[in-house]
């Protein structure tokens, strides 16, 4: 099953929507309460293709390529979290969406948290999937930076595969199709420069001023599920537990046998967690 | 803005068909505590979301939402008649801001309000005129109703409209949890009832009002006595609603369709929209803490009766929240 045939019974539309200076690639599928999916550093909306089918059973799912990423306009200056946050706010406005669930993976989770802090009334609930932004571990930052930039500078299947393998608990989770999808994006003229600007958050000084602090977490009102994994390359599960505790209304879940992409490696389990948490509007028996 | 919230049930039957002295005193204590909280908070403006019960709003022109730039109590159920001390400028400012944010609401320069507004006002203050107020009506009874989520959008927009106001602002939501007292409905009322009550019921004669109110009291007595034909209160559903609002988890209730509210909480449970709006307005200031929460199903008053008080979780959180407010 390919990425795109995994939800071939679901009506969807991929379009490019002008959001300020960013011509933004957006996948829009399903109907119901809105759920926005945010990918990670160097990522693209295909990160969630395996989850579309299950999630569209309950939600209108919006997945998009963030500024400088995927098929959205390349970045020509460094992009910090505020740019992603403002872009998301404007994207929702453009789509006429007044409130949404957010699910962010890695960088996407970082953006979601900052978004929820700044725009509390726009967020219903959040799922943070091994989110970034709370830690600044030099080795991890350097690894992301070097693997990502190498793949963008030399978008060979091998380089792209190495970057993708970093995400997975099991290297065999990286399919040839996933490599090819990312390779095509990274091979676009100008992407290498965009990647440099994306990676500014791996620079210690820049990262520090964008970090998610305890105060940030304490200022988020949206009920939030923090998902961590057994094999996450970005940090230990305790980091996720601590986040859940520091959130006003946080809970925590651990997924075994997955790395940075549990939505991909443990798709069924992940989807079930998402649905249990986001679609939780149980009717009491009366 | 320094902000606080009181959300409370109301019931026109308070004083007319009371439960046991013990329960009456318990509620009195809860409302006294709320009054003391408000006195300490010392609000400079009250923004109140409340419904109407065919005393001020009729089918001759039924808006989903209406902000009062001037408002007058009709004095139903023996409550005082007279003008509320409406802050006209604030009403227009909030109205304009809410419209600009994409939530449509009507504006009235001659809003008539009933016990839905007046009771909470008098629970918390001495007179109708004790405090500057902006009354915001939410239609909770005259079908068709919009989705509950829309009341949250209204509240969020009002919260954003107030974000730059330096005054101490008390947000009030007024309405029942589960309850289903007999209210005539456009769908199935007799033509003369529609004409007399739902369409042209404004400014009834003293006798007409008395007759109508006697009927309500009679119905409440029958209900409390266990007579058949009435829907039971639903404490379990009420708990779900209170839990959701206490934790800022609006989606847990507002994603349901209107039938769910009727099925679980009875027709008048739509009044919880006033709480949703008030809590949504508060949530724009970041996390909040419910300071106190009282609940008791009281059949004599035809209501799952609840009073809650909430304040921002921390002044720090408040200071950090952007004043950009709702983006649309």
From TrEMBL, chain A:
Family matches, as InterPro entries: AB_hydrolase_1, AB_hydrolase_fold
Keyword Hydrolase carried by entry: yes
SUPFAM superfamilies in the cross-refs: alpha/beta-Hydrolases (SSF53474)
Pfam families assigned to the protein according to its UniProt record, in alphabetical order: Abhydrolase_1 (PF00561)
Domain AB hydrolase-1 stretches: 33-265
Gene3D superfamilies hit by this protein: alpha/beta hydrolase (3.40.50.1820)
Keywords: Hydrolase
Recorded GO MF terms: hydrolase activity
The protein, known as: Alpha/beta hydrolase fold protein
Organism field: Hoyosella subflava (strain DSM 45089 / JCM 17490 / NBRC 109087 / DQS3-9A1) (Amycolicicoccus subflavus)
Taxonomic path: Bacteria, Bacillati, Actinomycetota, Actinomycetes, Mycobacteriales
Automatic annotation (TrEMBL), chain B:
Active site: 115 (proton donor), 179 (proton acceptor)
Co-factor requirement: Fe(2+)
Domain Extradiol ring-cleavage dioxygenase class III enzyme subunit B: 6-305
This protein's pathway: Aromatic compound metabolism; 3-phenylpropanoate degradation
Record keywords, A-Z: Aromatic hydrocarbons catabolism, Dioxygenase, Iron, Oxidoreductase
Membrane-crossing residue ranges in chain numbering: none
GO biological process: 3-phenylpropionate catabolic process
Domain of life: Bacteria
This enzyme's EC code(s): 1.13.11.16
Catalyzed reactions: (2E)-3-(2,3-dihydroxyphenyl)prop-2-enoate + O2 = (2Z,4E,7E)-2-hydroxy-6-oxonona-2,4,7-trienedioate + H(+); 3-(2,3-dihydroxyphenyl)propanoate + O2 = (2Z,4E)-2-hydroxy-6-oxonona-2,4-dienedioate + H(+)
GO molecular function per UniProt: 3-carboxyethylcatechol 2,3-dioxygenase activity; ferrous iron binding
One Pfam family recorded for the sequence: LigB
Cited function: Catalyzes the non-heme iron(II)-dependent oxidative cleavage of 2,3-dihydroxyphenylpropionic acid and 2,3-dihydroxicinnamic acid into 2-hydroxy-6-ketononadienedioate and 2-hydroxy-6-ketononatrienedioate, respectively.
Self-association state and partner proteins as the record states: Homotetramer.
HAMAP family: MhpB (MF_01653)
NCBIfam families noted in UniProt: PRK13370.1-4
Family membership: Belongs to the LigB/MhpB extradiol dioxygenase family.
Annotated protein name in UniProt: 2,3-dihydroxyphenylpropionate/2,3-dihydroxicinnamic acid 1,2-dioxygenase
Organism whose genome encodes this protein: Hoyosella subflava (strain DSM 45089 / JCM 17490 / NBRC 109087 / DQS3-9A1)
Gene name in the database record: mhpB
């Amino acid at each position: 099953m390919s990425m795109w045939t995994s939800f071939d019974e679901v009506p969807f539309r991929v379009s490019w929507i002008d959001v300020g200076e960013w011509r933004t690639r957006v996948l829009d599928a399903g109907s119901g309460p809105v759920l926005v999916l945010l990918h990670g550093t160097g990522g693209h909306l295909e990160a969630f293709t395996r989850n579309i089918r299950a999630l569209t059973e309950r939600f209108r799912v919006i997945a998009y390529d963030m500024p400088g990423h995927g098929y959205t306009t390349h970045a020509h200056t460094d992009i910090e979290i505020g740019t992603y946050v403002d872009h998301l706010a404007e994207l929702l406005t453009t789509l006429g969406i007044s409130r949404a669930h957010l699910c962010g993976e890695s960088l996407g989770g970082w953006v979601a948290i900052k978004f929820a802090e700044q725009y509390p009334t726009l967020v219903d609930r959040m799922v943070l999937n091994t989110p970034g932004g709370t830690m600044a571990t030099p080795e991890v930052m350097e690894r992301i930076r070097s693997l990502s930039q190498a793949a963008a500078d030399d978008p060979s299947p091998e380089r792209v595969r190495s970057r993708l393998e970093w995400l997975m608990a099991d290297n065999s989770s990286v399919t040839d199709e996933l490599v090819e999808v990312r390779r095509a994006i990274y091979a676009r003229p100008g992407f290498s420069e965009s990647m440099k600007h994306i990676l500014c958050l791996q620079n210690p000084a820049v990262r520090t001023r964008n970090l998610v602090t305890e105060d940030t977490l304490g200022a988020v009102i949206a009920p939030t599920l923090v998902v961590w994994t057994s094999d996450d390359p970005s940090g230990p599960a305790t980091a996720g537990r601590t986040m859940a505790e520091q959130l006003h209304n946080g809970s925590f879940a651990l997924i075994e046998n997955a790395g940075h992409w549990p939505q991909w490696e443990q798709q069924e389990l992940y989807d079930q967690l998402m649905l249990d948490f986001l679609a939780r509007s149980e009717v009491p028996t009366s | 803005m320094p902000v606080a919230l009181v959300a409370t049930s109301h019931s026109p039957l308070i004083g007319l068909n009371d439960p046991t002295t013990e329960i009456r005193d318990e509620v009195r204590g809860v409302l006294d505590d709320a009054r003391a909280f408000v006195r300490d908070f010392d609000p400079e403006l009250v923004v109140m979301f409340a419904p109407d019960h065919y005393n001020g709003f009729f089918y001759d022109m039924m808006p989903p939402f209406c902000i009062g730039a001037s408002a007058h109590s009709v004095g139903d159920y023996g409550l005082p008649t007279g003008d509320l001390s409406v802050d006209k400028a604030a009403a227009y400012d909030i109205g304009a801001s809410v419209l600009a944010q994409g939530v449509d609401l009507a504006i009235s320069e001659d809003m008539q309000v009933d016990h839905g507004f007046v009771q909470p006002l008098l629970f918390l203050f001495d007179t109708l005129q004790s405090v500057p107020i902006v009354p915001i009506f939410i239609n909770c009874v005259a079908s068709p109703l919009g989705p509950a989520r829309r009341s949250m959008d209204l509240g969020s927009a009002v919260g954003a409209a107030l974000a730059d106001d330096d005054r101490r602002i008390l947000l009030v939501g007024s309405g029942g949890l589960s309850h289903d007292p007999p209210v005539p409905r456009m769908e199935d009322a007799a033509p003369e009832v529609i004409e007399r009550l739902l369409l042209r019921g404004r400014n009834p004669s003293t006798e007409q009002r008395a007759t109508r109110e006697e009927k309500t009291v009679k119905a409440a007595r029958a209900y409390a006595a266990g007579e058949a034909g009435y829907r039971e209160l639903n404490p379990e559903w009420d708990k779900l609603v209170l839990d959701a609002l206490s934790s800022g988890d609006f989606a847990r209730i507002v994603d349901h369709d209107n039938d769910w509210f009727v099925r679980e909480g009875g027709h008048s449970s739509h009044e919880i929209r006033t709480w949703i709006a008030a809590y949504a307005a508060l949530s724009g200031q970041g996390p909040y803490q419910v300071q106190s929460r009282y609940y008791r199903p009281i059949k004599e008053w035809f209501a799952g009766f609840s009073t809650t008080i909430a304040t921002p979780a921390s002044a720090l959180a408040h200071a950090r929240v952007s004043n950009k407010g709702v983006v649309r």
